[in-house]
Amino acid sequence: MIILNWQRLVLFLLFAMATTSATTLRNIMYLTGQHPIVPDDVSLRNPITHVALAFMNSNIFNQEENSASWPIFMSVDEARSKFEPATKIMVAIGGWGDTGGFDTAARTEESRAIFARNVAAMVRDTGADGVDIDWEYPGGNGEDYKKVPNEAKAWEITAYPLLLAEIRRALGPDKLMSAAVPGIPRDMLAFTSDTVPQIMESLDFLNVMTYDLMNRRDNATKHHTGVQLSLDSVNAYMANGAPADKINLGFAFYTKYFRAEGKSCSENPIGCPTGLMEDPETGADLGKTGGFSWHDDVPEDVRGSFEKALREGRYDEQGGGYWYWDEDQALWWTFDTPEAIAKKFPLIVEEMKLGGVFAWGLGEDAPDFAHLKAFNTGVERLAKMKDEL
Fold this sequence. Notes:
This protein is of the alpha/beta class. The chain has one domain (about 25-250, about 335-389): Glycosidases (TIM Barrel), CATH 3.20.20. Helices cover about 35% and strands about 20% of the residues. The strands form two sheets. Strands 1-2-3-4-5-6-7-13 form an eight-stranded parallel β-barrel. It has a five-stranded antiparallel sheet with strand order 9-8-12-11-10, covered by helices on one side. Strand 1, helix 2 and strand 2 (about 50-55) form a beta-alpha-beta unit. Helix 6 (about 155-170) runs parallel beside helix 7. The chain is globular and about 60 Å long. The two termini are about 30 Å apart. The relative contact order is 0.13. Pfam families: Glyco_hydro_18 (PF00704).
């Protein structure tokens, strides 16, 4: 009996240690070539646990000969010098519209091995701590979905976890590996109850893109990064086998706006019809959508409307999102304020017991970094709560 009690005690302590090590919330920032800006204030950088340099093109990794260079907007060494010593520096491969390289890589056992070998060589040569695989829409619904129908990409659904597994084998167990994955359930073609457990065997965590949840393929207004839609995203991955502690919630440091059909939206702006926003033949943008980061200049044609959105917008307690309907210009604005960001931590991250958060992207919030401050505060608050427990 005494031995059994000691065995139980040892098991309890091991479980407690594992739980404690897992309670550090991942705080991940994409650092982009569009806005390669890092805050000077060390208090803003210090909470960041991981940085993903975005992007390196996927086609680079399909060449059979060894590469002499790995082109990216900022070297890993330079990035490492801009952050605190413990920060993990990763390289993000791919991105929106970059599908061709992954398509080539995933097709055969041989092509997967070539791609994986080159990824491992890049990590070794650059000194990166790991990679983030941004094949954002395997199985279809990517930028080219009108030109290449989803039926022609169905094979990618089974090939995607095979490619990830090959990359993991090439990297070994000591390097980090993550994937950026769709936030809208209609786009989760490759993330089924059969494939998600296979996918998670290769990854340290998933970056669920819980933003752009309204885009030009929609026909009614909604929050592009709202609480309820984000919960729908997270629940979909968890239902198909992704552990909560391996899921990171995505935050958008930028605005979105959409032109709706007119003043008929005034009474019920949320859920208002927008009409067609993309070309039904080509999938091209019909010019009814737009957006910009907090670092960008506001486009002249919507500047006055945006000022009203900042001044007169409101928070939707039901759907969980900040919005403004400009009746004069028939514009629907949807974006996160610092206050809206703060609400997501208890409502999503804490409630769902997620393992981390990430934002696109760090420099997009310059120069004020007001959204980053709210983001860091949310992370620190949850870490403090866990320490107190």
